[in-house]
């Protein structure tokens, strides 16, 4: 394996040793593998894709007083310390800055194939079987009910409402997870997203059947 990647994996594992389950090393590893899978078809720069996937959640602004610069800064300083070219560092930092769902709700000025690939891979981890597990983990952490037939999903939430939403976890499927399929940028990402999307629909069909007491 490329020693730059090897050192980066080691750094990310150490740094995320105490991270919560939604954004721990295993999330990074899944996004990394999915990004490489997408890249086989999309043929972006593999080193950039790998480094950006590995470093994309190195510091979450949510847990750092909303500091949006901290992640790209830590990633950049690390890559510099292991002697990576400055043009590669710049590209990786731009990807991290522009990756988040929140950033994509604002104005995004940077575009690259590698950004599209890593963003698709990150979003894919929020849907399908893993996405379902992550959503209920998050809901449990926030002490939310699984489902409440009386509480309808809110499809037009502002950023602020989205952040403070207290709705049942099943509503999150309609408020975000089912929307991700159409946000995929790469053909390979769209393909994988469609399968995971269908699986979530089947899952909810079964969920409602069980809720209604069906055999
Ligand atoms: P991201 O890392 O994609 O920016 P978040 O930090 O908002 O996303 O969420 C991490 C995980 O928790 C994702 O799988 C997401 O779907 C899930 N999640 C976020 N908000 C909610 C919510 N209101 N209810 C259930 N799951 C949620
Ligand atoms: Ni992520």
Automatic annotation (TrEMBL):
SUPFAM superfamilies: HD-domain/PDEase-like (SSF109604). Keywords: Hydrolase. GO terms for molecular function: hydrolase activity. Residues 24-127 form the HD domain. InterPro entries: HD/PDEase_dom, HD_domain. It holds the Pfam family HD. This is Phosphohydrolase. It comes from Pedobacter ginsengisoli.
